[in-house]
Amino acid sequence: MMNENVEQHNAHGGFPWKHVIGLILSLALTLIALWIVVSYSFSTTFTLASIIILAIFQALIQLLFFMHLNESKSRVWQIIAIGFGFFTAATVVVGSLWIMAYSL
Amino acid sequence: MIADIKAFLSDFLVLGDPLIYGADISIVLSMVAIVFVLSYFKKWKWLWKEWLTTIDAKKIGIMYIIAALLMLFRGGIDALLMRSQITFPNEGFLDSQHYNEIFTTHGTIMILFMAMPFIVGMMNVAVPLQIGARDVAFPYLNALSFWLFFVGAMLFNLSFVIGGSPDAGWTSYTPLAGAKLDPGPGENYYLIGLQLAGIGTLATGVNFMATILKMRAPGMTLFKMPMFTWSSLITSLIIVFAFPVLTVALALLTIDRLFGAHFFTIASGGSPMMWANLFWIWGHPEVYIVILPAFGIFSEVISTFSHKKLFGYKAMVWSMVLISALSFVVWLHHFFTMGNTAAVNSVFSISTMAIAIPTGVKIFNWLFTLNKGRIEFSTAMLWALAFIPNFLIGGLTGVMLAIAPADYQYHNSYFLVAHFHSVLIGGTVFGMFAALHYWWPKMFGHVLNEKLGKISFWIFMVSFNICFLPMYFVGLMGMTRRMYTYPEGLGWMPLNVVITIGAFGMGIGFIVMVYNIYWSARYGKRDKTGDPWGGRTLEWATTSPAVEYNFAHIPKVETADAFLHMKEKGTTGQISKAPFKPIHMPNNSGKPFIQAWLMFFAGFGLVFEWYWLAIPAAAATMLVMAFRSFEYHDHHYIPVEEIERTESATGRLN
Ligand code: HEM
Ligand SMILES: [Cu+2]
Predict the structure, then answer these.
(1) Under an 8 A CB cutoff, do A87 and B341 touch?
(2) Which residues from A are below 8 Å from B241, CB to CB?
(3) pTM reported for the whole predicted model
(4) What is the pLDDT of residues A27-39, one digit of tens each?
(5) ipTM entry
(6) At CA B544, angle to CA B543 and CA B549, rounded to 5?
(7) Which residue range forms the structural domain that includes residue A32?
């Protein structure tokens, strides 16, 4: 198994444009989110909504540019893993909101 | 000026407490002793080349296990100190502050720095061998995981002698653990120490998931994997999804404490209860992280020593899958009493009870594996057999605690303390002890003495029950958790005396086990065969201890219990059959060690809010990572001649 990995490593080569673009995009999204929050010039609703949307884009960029989501051969595992990820994320968010609704 | 320095040193060095002076002296003495021994025997180079820079999973596993045993000792001493304080009413051995610190360090160390490394250590020792691989998927990352865990544990332990221990419980609930009510470095140590170790654990989860999914020997389909490998896969999955929640929660509380944010303070719109919520979103999956690998080990041990195939293999797997999903939807049972609505409590009450179903399935599977088996009462098997009833007690009392209205009675009483020790000791610790005896020959090439092993088993197991069964009752009598003393006349004394006797008995059992380790290293039976127990899975197909590259030829797998099948077909020799091909292996590296210690100093800087230390150390960490990414020669080939030499030295060459 590992033998094959070596060959793949060395085969990479070329300038990693994808990573650089991903890095710039994710930095930009982070800075925009930070600016929206610390500038205090928007309503709370707008602030919250916009940072959530930015966070979703951030997650997509991470998955596509760094985690090679669309490059792998073993699709099944990716689907299972992402499905489980959605399941836990949803339980955490929905569960916390429900639990905290009365005790905040 | 001088007065300032004096005041600083007095806090920094925690002056004025004889117990801490004792610790200071013993730490300095043992450091001097280690340095002396290493220098006298000229072992520095050996230590660096063979251990500190190793990225061999087998050795990393051994280091994890040694660290876990040391932490078990430290946590055990904490436990005995606590028990000494609450044996009799109105004792003055420890004051309340000191007691708070000790139950905090005991709980945190036992879970994060004892149970976790023990499990990860066993995974490192056994999983690559069980799936017929030569190492894990990312060996360098594996070394980094270990060293991050190690420096996290060291940072946490340092709090005792430098700056003062954390004292808000292993759960570190806000607002108590916030900056306002608990100033000083203690809680910072908790936050940063766990953060470092947690990052290491997260990387371990990724690593073992990739290893098990991608590096199995040809022919080993998922449903032919050994049960311990299955449990490691599921555990890794839970780690990957649960630990990020801890990372975030710790980071938020750190930001609260160090930079004055208000995530968990009522002021400025924060919510202290959010901490409890986030902590247990991680915390409940965490208890399954520490129990599932033990389940895997029991499956291996029970099947091996019943000389029978594991009963209901598929049911075992699916029940673990179900447990992993359910473990994410029960966390509220840790705070039923926090004032949620009845609907919230009911839902989580039912989801909690549902977990008992797959767990029960597993218990029956083990019982049916034993049924009509040719049972061999080895030490490992004794631990596995004792697990069943002891864990059952913990599981059943767990179902009692899951009944939300009743939990208002049990919550935070000694009944709860007894419950979680029943599952943690009766499950996890028994499991690790079983694994220790079972895989010891694979790690070190000799078996542990069976007679001493059985003596330590009986002393420990009986004392465990003497210690924890009475706790259920003293809890029902009203004694609450985290109580540093109790008044006379409540009728609690007789039970408390019994509990303390049991606690010391467990200490004796542990000492016998350590003595067994020493005795067996000197005189124990050497394992020349590589297969001392009549094993069924691939780790027994190679030598004890396994050669550097695990298998000269990767075995071909046709069935579950692959090695047993090879023995039946008489094909065991093929693993060492000439001709060989050069074997590709990763290079050792000192970078994980260096990077982790830089992170230690960055963490230490954060604990004391010394940014002049934290920032440069963090920058240096980045630098090491940058250097690593330009490292192209990170592997080598073992030449055929060397493989031939190694194989003929083991007497296996054919
Ligand atoms: C030698 C065996 C042990 C003894 C005698 C023992 C005893 C105790 C005692 C007396 C307490 C404090 C109860 C209180 O005052 O609230 C405690 C708490 C705790 N123990 Fe143990 N223990 C042992 C082993 C373990 C192990 C092996 C684990 C985990 C794997 C563990 C996990 C915990 C935890 C999480 C707490 C709660 C700490 C807190 O309240 O924050 N213990 N134990
Ligand atoms: Cu739980």
Answers:
(1) no
(2) 84-85, 88
(3) 0.94
(4) 999 999 999 998 8
(5) 0.84
(6) 55
(7) 1-71
